[in-house]
Amino acid sequence: MIEPRRPNPGSSPLSRHADTITLKLPLEAAIDACRMAIRAGNWKIMNTDGRNFLVKEQFGLVSMLLSYPAKAAILVRDETDGATLIELHASVFGFGPIQKGRARAALARLRGEIEQAASAMAADA
C-alpha cells in the first residue's frame, strides 16, 4: 500500500529574501525613518510592537490578479556607537524565479525608501 506524502513541516510555499541596513541614526530616529518609509511607499502595517513592523504591499486589483503581494518584516536593533541595525525580511507566496525576484524587488524598494527617509532625517538634523 502506498502512503500519501505528508508535507515536510520545515517546507513553506513562500519565496523569501533578506537584507540588512546600518543607519547612522539613534534608535528612535531610525524607527521614525521606518514609519516614514512605510507611509511613503505602498505598504500597510499589519502588526507592530512600536519598534518592529510587519507590513504588506498594497497594489490594485489588476496587479493582484497577476501576482501575490509581498509581506515584509522590519526588525530594528540598537547598536553601539549610536548606529541602528535594521533587518529586512520579505516573502511572497509561491516558488520559482519570478516569485523570488518579486520578493527581492519589493525588499529593494523598501530598503530604498528607508534609506531615503533616513537621509532626509539626517539632513534636517
Describe this structure in words.
This protein is of the alpha+beta class. It has a single domain (16-124), classed as 2-Layer Sandwich (Alpha-D-Glucose-1,6-Bisphosphate, Chain A, domain 4). Helices cover 38% and strands 31% of the residues. It contains three helices and five strands; from the N terminus they run βαββαββα. It has a five-stranded antiparallel beta sheet, with helices on one face. The longest helix has 28 residues, at 97-124. The protein is elongated. The protein starts with 13 loop residues before the first strand and ends with a helix. Residues 1-9 have low confidence and may be disordered.
Any idea what the radius of gyration is? 17 Å
CATH architecture: 2-Layer Sandwich
Looking at CATH, the homologous superfamily is: START domain
Q: How are the strands of the biggest sheet laid out side by side? A: 1-5-4-3-2
Q: In percent, how helical is the residue content?
A: 25-40%
How many E-type strands? 5
Specify the structural class. alpha+beta
Q: Report the average pLDDT across residues.
A: 85
The first-to-last residue Cα distance is 71 Å
Share of residues in strands: 25-35%
Query: Based on CA inertia axes, which overall geometry fits?
Result: elongated
Return the CATH topology.
Alpha-D-Glucose-1,6-Bisphosphate, Chain A, domain 4
Major sheet characteristics:
5 strands, antiparallel
Which ranges are low-confidence, i.e. pLDDT below 50, for 5 or more consecutive residues?
1-9
What is the N-to-C succession of helices and strands? Answer: EHEEHEEH
The first-level CATH class is given as Alpha Beta
Number of helices: 3
Indicate how many domains the architecture comprises.
Answer: 1
